Amino acid sequence: MTQKAPFILVDGSSYLYRAYHAMPSLTNAEGLATGAIYGVINMLRKLLRDYTPQHVAVVFDAKGKTFRNDLYSEYKATRPPMPDDLREQIEPLHAVVKAMGFPLLMIDNVEADDVIGTLAHQATDLKIDTVISTGDKDMAQLVNEHVTLINTMSNTTTDVQAVHDKYGIAPNRIIDYLALMGDKVDNIPGVPSVGPKTATKLLQQYDSLEGVIAHADEVKGKMGEKLREAAAELPLSYLLATIKLDVELDDTPTSLQLQTPDNEALLALFKSLEFKTWTTELVRAGNASSNQGVSQLDSSSSTIKLADPLIAPVAPTEQHYESIVTEERLQYWLTQLKKADLFAFDTETTSLNYLDARIVGLSFAIKAGEAAYIPLTHDYVGAPDQLALEHVLTLFKPLLEDPKQHKVGQNLKYDRHVLLNHDIDLQGIQHDTMLQSYVLNSTATRHDMDSLAEKYLGRSTIHFEDIAGKGKKQLTFNQIAVEQAAPYAAEDADITLQLHQTLWPQLQAIPSLEEVYSKLEMPLLPVINTLERNGVNIDIWMLQQQSDQLAHDIDKLERQAWDVAGEEFNLGSPKQLGAILYEKLELPILKKTPKGQPSTAEGVLQELADDGYELPQIIMEYRSLSKLKSTYTDRLPEQVNKTTGRVHTSYHQAVTATGRLSSSDPNLQNIPIRSEQGRRIREAFVAPEGYTLLAADYSQ
Predict the structure, then answer these.
(1) Has residue 308 got a pLDDT over 60?
(2) DSSP labels, 118-154
(3) Cβ-count burial 186-201 (b if 16+ within 10 Å, e if not)
(4) Which tens digit of pLDDT belongs to each residue from 63-100?
(5) Beta strand 156-158 with 147-151: parallel, antiparallel or unpaired?
């Protein structure tokens, strides 16, 4: 028996905790915490969009102890109690889950894992493909040809091959693996000091936990001693780590069906929780008084007003920022980053010029409110000892180049350039908060981190000028004292992570915008990065010839203007030009300046030129040619990079309201194409031998 849509099992308890730690500390007007609720619901909506399931269940842990406490009284004894601001979210979350039409299961004396394991096992017997949505590594023991895990927070899927790739063992040996390592969180004993690599090595050598125990005498050194000391308790650890497959249930995989949502209840809940975007979707789609199905919750939202973003008014009140200056802490953070599903990342550098910039330090954040900065090349009198740049980059290169290690940043295109300057090819770029903000509201004038932090997090950040100064005396980052630089740099990573946790759910709530972001803007980022880095060849000799010709034409126009005016004057002086146009030639005054003077602005002169007045026509052409000369034929050769021999512009994804690209330093998109001179300038952009230049544009 097979079915098109898989049977979906949601580990509600796992996602509740993960959302609690990942989402900003949202509260409604009554002070009820709502961040975890928002995160879990958002995950459920994504599952509905991705799978359109018919058979589904959301499973939570029931209150009280389980059979594992009977097996081992110390099971989970060291876990801290559930935080009050998480506990208060459970009941309203359950209410929303039910209102969305999801069957919700909680079974006494077992954990959610056991209920999920039992249902997945039943589905496998029926040859029903099952997807378990979870962030719990223990669930890997359930993977088989019909059972796959998905982590919606990291967008990672785990099938049989993925288990082999990640753990080096088959899914049916995951329990053995967990028993050997133990679990400090759940207080499962295991073997002290046995980590993932050692557990995998032992199982690859001796096949199973039984084999490891049987050959414990062969394991040498301190590891062998610890293994032999722990051998008696390993069967217990195995039992505690084993997910039950035989829980007595009233439901079956085929009886658990997605129901029609109770939209009236959903509307009341969303209003109470102050989830504005989802409330708006329901109201504007007319769902609050209809039974049109849960898919309507994810309908195209082109009519939804985005002027009122979901703001996280309560950011973490405490920040724990660390400056990493020892090998021990460096290794600790490197290990934590490797374990993370997603981490925020930023570089501090010597220059804003992406080809010249060199790394001064790196900052990272895994959890909101916690971040670290690695100072590397701060150089000033009295600067403290820092870890060696090349040593740190050698350690971090595999992490930064691993496409499976997902990263989020603010304008990561720049950071990718900086790392390439150090021979590191940044991969795994999963999210960019600048682009998230831009897609949500392309008409906003600013998408920089400081502005976004104020807008979405209600937080005032440390500005660069606060630590570097202003004007001619402004310091470069390597000259800033480490004790000042560290909080600034760590905050950059922390705020970036918090912005992602706020903006990404908003994008996911509007499928049309999520598609633009995920399928257009994010894939475009590395492409633009490559275009910038490659640069473009220009024919300097051709531009010099054009510049000489433009100078001749400009001089000729100047003399023509003098002839028409009957005297010499400075064509670039608004005052002198105004006197000639309006006093001597008595041309009509179409507009005045704020100070009451007749205007010589471009729009006014163009209107006079269109009306047939000769001098304005000459002035307009004079201005056009002067701009071409100063901006392009004279300037472009000066902008050729001495190392590459090419011109390297900066392309901007998050500037124009219409979604098109713009460029600066130099501005390439505004080279005129209608005039003969403009077309000649474009001819100076040449492809290397064997290549062709391709012109492309968005259709708008």
Answers:
(1) no
(2) HHHHHHHHTT--EEEE---GGGGGG-SSSEEEEETTT
(3) bebbbbeebeeebbbe
(4) 989 999 999 888 888 888 889 999 999 999 999 999 99
(5) antiparallel
pLDDT of residue 22: 65
Q: How far apart are CA 283 and CA 261, in angstroms?
A: 15
What is the amino acid identity at position 360?
V
Does pLDDT of 277 surpass 80? no
Measured CA to CA in angstroms, residue 319 lies from 73, 105, 189 at distances of 36, 37, 33
Q: How far apart are CA 365 and CA 318, in angstroms?
A: 14
Q: What is the pLDDT of residue 23?
A: 66
Phi, psi of 264 (to 5 degrees): -65, -45
Q: H or E segment at 226?
A: helix 221-230
Cite the DSSP H helix spans in 374-458. Answer: 389-401, 412-420, 433-440, 449-452
Secondary structure of residue 66 in the 3-state scheme = strand
Sign of CA dihedral 635, 641, 645, 651: negative
Instruction: State the alpha helices, DSSP H only, in 421-535.
Output: 433-440, 449-452, 464-468, 482-508, 511-516, 522-534
User: How confident is the model at residue 306, as a pLDDT?
Assistant: 32
- Proportion of the chain above pLDDT 70, given as a percent: 93
* Helix-then-strand count for the chain, H and E: 28, 16
The domains of the chain are located at 7-241, 263-298, 320-534, 537-686
Output DSSP code: residue 315: -
Average pLDDT over residues 28-54: 87
Q: Do residues 266 and 100 touch, judged by C-beta distance below 8 A?
A: yes
Architecture of domain 7-241: 3-Layer(aba) Sandwich (3.40)
Which residue type occupies 233? E
CATH match of 537-686 with 1.20.1060.10: yes
- How far is residue 454's CA from residue 461's CA, in Å, rounded to a whole number? 8
pTM: 0.56
Q: Which CATH number fits domain 320-534: 3.30.420.10, 3.40.50.720, 3.90.1640.10, 3.90.550.10?
A: 3.30.420.10
Q: Mean pLDDT across the stretch 521-525?
A: 96
Helix or strand (DSSP H, E) at 429? strand 429-432
Among the listed residues 269, 266, 258, the one whose alpha carbon sits nearest the alpha carbon of residue 288: 266
- Close Cβ partners of 468 (under 8 Å, ≥ 6 residues apart): 474, 475, 476, 477, 480
- Residue 211's φ and ψ, nearest 5 degrees, are -65, -40
Mean pLDDT of 356-368: 96
pLDDT tens profile 166-217: 899 999 999 999 999 888 888 888 888 888 888 999 999 999 999 988 888 8
Q: Which residues contact 699 (CB under 8 A, 6 or more apart)?
A: none
- Whether 190 and 198 have beta carbons less than 8 Å apart is answered as no
Q: Is 358 exposed, middle or buried (0-12, 13-18, 19+ CB in 10 A)?
A: middle
pLDDT (0 to 100) of residue 3? 46
